[in-house]
Amino acid sequence: MDKRTIAAAALSDFKNNRSKWVRLYFSKVFIWMAWMASCVYGIGVATSASVTILLQLLLGAAFAHGVELQHQALHQSGFRSRRINRVVGMMLGLPMLVSYSSYQDSHLFHHKALGKPEDAEFFEYGDKTERQFLAVIKHFFLINHFCDFLKNVIDSLNGRPFKTKLIPQNANRIRFEYLLMAAVVAGVFFVNSELLVKCWIIPLFLFAAPIHALIELPEHYACNKDSTDVFANTRSIKAHRLASWFTNGNNYHVEHHWIASLPVEQLASVHHKIERQIQHLSSSYFSFYRRFFSTLLLGKRTPQSQQGL
Predict the structure, then answer these.
(1) Does residue 305 lie within any of the structural domains?
(2) Does residue 233 sit within a domain?
(3) How distant, in Å, are the alpha carbons of 30, 32, 89, 216 from that of 92?
């Protein structure tokens, strides 16, 4: 079966069973909300520092998982309604201070420009092959993202127009969403500043940021950035079902870039049909990061053409 036939069959299954995929996405969002609420409640009643830290780690993981669910919504493969996708997507991105409309505009442009000089991602980490300690810290703790958030809030307050890359109508939405996020942060601070620190700031900066970076770093790392072929410029990773659930199918990144409109649950089936054509395929997240961190500790730069990660 050739690639065109595989893609057509997957898209047909998506359209014919849309209600099933909507119900599945709803269940994932519901689980995320319950996960978040349980961690916040647990932190509020915990009397042990070790329990509090564990719950903050789990809450930070929920923050990162929420952005992966938001990613599905911005591709319109979550709910049928674009409005519902946006409202839910805004909620999912709020803990990590991610504007749904800004992420959508930047990310869809990334899909269009992948392999071209103008390509840029929403979470821009700079040179991912850089091995200097401070550069790695900047990458894993999303320093650029948080600085951009503050800048965008200030720009929104000053009424400065936002420039979009692909979706012009998102400009006003972006401004509204940054103002809304700033209002929520300020509201939580004034209502309960201790809650803000224990249930948002600490989980966000210490846990969610590095977890999110670990999820997304492999996507195009050490791939052929000069090629527009997704089988050459993108990486997929074979992962345990639990890891695939936690990353919301982000391990099947070649498959996602190839057919971006599919719900993530269909990507595993597509993967098995095109696996041999993927040029950058890691056997597991463990094997990828074992090579990555061993290279990091040795102080070497990884060639973009390296395929063994």
Answers:
(1) no
(2) yes
(3) 11, 9, 5, 17
